[in-house]
């Protein structure tokens, strides 16, 4: 049987003549550090610090997403920029919440089937007359197991924002991820940009919760 590693932690309590010792497992200590994280921590296997509460993201989601976030966003705290639970269901509001951002964002969706999926965008979402983004952009899904779909290099149809829809991925057919103006209806099909499978259980889905996180 593999012996569990442990560490000793010394504490100095007020009014005490000396330190007292607590023995915890290495795994417990990592988890503590991830929750109370200091800016000096550089361990890749620590969970990110979420400044705000997430209605969707669980520890397992964070653990699996972390290794795929580009290096320039690694080690940053995650800040909730937009949430349907907080800001209502409006694509216009989503754009407005990101008007001052100049950094990547992570979109997380939970649909009415309970499936979690979304996209990492190298650029904040905005209305544009052309496609924008870089090869850092990717789609992902936890439905039914975690998969990441990265840029194939075939085209550069990363993101395009309209007032009535948000589109990600494309090329001669449906979009990798599409959302309507009310952030209520969506669809996901295989596309040339990411060569992804549908992110949800069904091509067409209904959004239950949607969040967008930035890295600060």
What's this entry about, in short?
The protein is α+β, with helices and mostly antiparallel strands. The chain is built from four helices and twelve strands; from the N terminus they run ββααβααβββββββββ.
Number of helices, counting only DSSP H or I runs of 4 residues or more: 4
For the sheet with most strands, the description reads: 10 strands, antiparallel
Which word captures the global form?
A: globular
How many β-strand runs? 12
* Gap from first CA to last CA: 42 Å
- Average pLDDT reading: 85
- The H-and-E topology, N to C, reads as EEHHEHHEEEEEEEEE
Strand content: 25-35%
Unreliable residue runs: 2-16, 18-44
Helix percentage range = 10-25%
How many domains? The number is 2
Q: In angstroms, what is the radius of gyration?
A: 20 Å
Question: What structural category do the secondary elements indicate?
Answer: alpha+beta
């Amino acid at each position: 049987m593999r012996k569990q590693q442990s560490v000793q932690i010394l504490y100095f309590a007020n009014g005490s003549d000396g330190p007292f010792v607590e023995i915890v497992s290495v795994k417990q200590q990592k988890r503590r550090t991830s929750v109370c994280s200091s800016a000096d921590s550089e361990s890749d296997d620590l969970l990110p610090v979420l400044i705000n509460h997430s209605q969707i993201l669980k520890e397992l989601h964070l653990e699996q997403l972390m290794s795929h976030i580009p290096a320039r966003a690694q080690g940053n705290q995650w800040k909730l920029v937009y949430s349907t639970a907080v800001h209502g269901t409006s694509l216009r509001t989503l754009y407005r919440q990101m008007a001052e951002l100049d950094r990547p964002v992570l979109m997380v969706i939970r649909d009415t089937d309970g499936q979690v999926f979304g996209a990492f965008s190298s650029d904040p979402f905005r209305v544009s007359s052309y496609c924008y983004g870089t090869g850092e952009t990717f789609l992902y899904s936890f439905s039914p197991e975690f998969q990441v779909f990265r840029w194939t290099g075939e085209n550069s149809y990363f993101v395009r924002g309209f007032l009535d829809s948000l589109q990600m991925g494309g090329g001669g057919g449906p979009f990798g991820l599409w959302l309507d103006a009310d952030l209520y209806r969506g669809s996901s099909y295989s596309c040339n940009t990411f060569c992804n499978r549908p992110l949800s259980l069904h091509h067409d889905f209904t959004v239950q919760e949607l969040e967008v996180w930035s890295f600060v």
